[in-house]
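lol forgot to send this yesterday, sorry. struct tokens for the thing we talked abt
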């Protein structure tokens, strides 16, 4: 996980009496090289260059339809990326015409990456020197199963670098689910229809697939950070590997099923896909309307009511884009200032994967029985079984992470397997109650005998 700064593995602390009584002073934070910023910028530039190359190729071959959709997906995600960086850095309230110009020509991530690198080099030169402006940060840590409150001094420069990292994490999710997912799905569809894979399209699909996997992995990390903001959280290599395998299998199997389903039914698949997306998009607004809550007006101090509504709509579109291809790891709550439900809602996660599994099975069956002209050289039955098995394996890695590898699993009142066990026991008890005789009828039957 890309961290802003690191702390020692565990502070040398004796037994702590209570969280309220003791505050442990941690060591000075050590800033790390911003690999995440470089990697996100590399993915953005690579996907942009390959998309523009394919637009040029489609134009030369007079394939206007394919060119239009490829350019549209690239432009929409790029504009949303620029708006995300501007929003996080609050550039509209600052006098920075050069940065705004770079965002206008869709090169905002490049200039932001340069600023982050300059800030990192400045910190390296000043390493060991005390900064004049520092602030205190307090986080909880679980040491031997006990909560300990630890305090650090964080300099202004490190906080600025942290803001760059957070901005790029959100940018990567915007790029992944509003740009790379539709781009990858469409290019796979074109490949199936045309039965050829030119080098430019293959490069574009590779960049899109890496971007989607990286964005989905960041979804889990950011969800943990948001839900447990009071805690200092570390994800080790094993946890990150488990999340990556889980998300890779989930997304690749889901997108391949969507592509095969769309290639089988052509335009007839469009109503099903649009309806699916609209249900996900409108679900948070229906819950917000039924709750009778007021729209939060303190998301950003300088925002008017119209600005707040635009932010809520943008967040809802991103939430729908994520849930259309994989689990978002967060439940949107529009009435809350934080816009997310910080509770560990196992029911929402179980419902999502149950519905998606049923959908995938239905789409695979449609491809199996109707997709004769899609893949002539492959066994449709074998491919259908492989895709369903891959999705089920991804669910298994998800259960493995929450059961054994979640960094704060000791804080759960129960875990996902316990929840599923309770649901099964509850259903079994209901079945027994329905099948058993009422006490009055049983006594009447005994008296008759």
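and heres what i got for the seq, position by position
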């Amino acid at each position: 996980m890309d961290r802003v700064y690191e702390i020692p593995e565990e502070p040398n602390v004796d037994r702590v009496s209570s969280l309220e009584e003791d505050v442990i002073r941690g060591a000075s934070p050590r800033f790390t090289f911003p690999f995440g910023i470089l990697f996100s910028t590399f993915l953005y530039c690579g996907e942009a260059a390959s998309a523009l190359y394919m637009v040029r190729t489609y134009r030369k071959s007079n394939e206007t339809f394919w060119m239009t959709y490829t350019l549209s997906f690239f432009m929409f995600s790029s504009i949303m990326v620029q708006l995300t960086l501007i929003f996080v850095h609050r550039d509209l309230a600052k006098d920075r015409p050069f940065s705004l110009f770079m965002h206008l020509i869709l090169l905002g991530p490049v200039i932001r990456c340069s600023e982050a690198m300059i800030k990192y080099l400045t910190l390296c030169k000043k390493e060991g020197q005390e900064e004049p402006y520092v602030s205190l940060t307090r986080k909880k840590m679980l040491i031997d199963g006990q909560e300990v409150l630890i305090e650090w001094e964080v300099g202004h420069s490190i906080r600025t670098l942290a803001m760059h990292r957070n901005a790029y994490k959100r940018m990567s999710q915007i790029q992944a689910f509003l740009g790379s997912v539709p781009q990858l799905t469409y290019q796979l569809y074109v490949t199936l229809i045309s039965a050829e894979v030119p080098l430019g399209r293959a490069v574009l699909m590779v960049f899109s697939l890496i971007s989607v996997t990286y964005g989905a992995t960041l979804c889990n990390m950011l969800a943990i950070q948001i839900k447990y903001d009071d805690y200092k959280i570390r994800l080790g290599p094993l946890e990150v590997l488990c999340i990556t395998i889980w998300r890779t299998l989930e997304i690749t199997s889901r997108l391949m099923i969507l592509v095969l389903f769309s290639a089988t039914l052509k335009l007839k698949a469009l109503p099903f896909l649009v309806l699916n997306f609209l249900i996900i998009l409108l679900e948070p607004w229906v819950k917000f309307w039924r709750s009778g809550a007021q729209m939060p007006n303190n998301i950003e101090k300088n925002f008017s009511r119209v600005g707040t509504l635009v932010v809520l709509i943008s967040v809802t579109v991103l939430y729908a884009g994520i849930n259309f291809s994989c689990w978002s790891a967060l439940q949107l709550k529009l009435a809350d200032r934080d816009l997310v439900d910080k509770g560990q809602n196992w029911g929402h996660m179980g419902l999502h994967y149950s519905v998606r599994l049923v959908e995938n099975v239905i789409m695979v069956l449609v491809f199996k029985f109707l997709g004769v002209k899609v893949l002539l050289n492959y066994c449709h039955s074998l491919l259908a079984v492989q895709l369903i098995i891959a999705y089920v394996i991804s669910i298994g890695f998800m259960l493995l992470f929450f059961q054994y590898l979640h960094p704060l699993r000791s804080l759960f009142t129960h875990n996902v397997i316990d929840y599923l066990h309770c649901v099964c026991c509850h259903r079994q008890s209901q079945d027994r109650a329905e099948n058993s005789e009422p006490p009055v009828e049983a006594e009447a039957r005994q008296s008759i005998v």
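The CA atoms of residues 55 and 67 lie 5 Å apart. anyway ping me if u want another try
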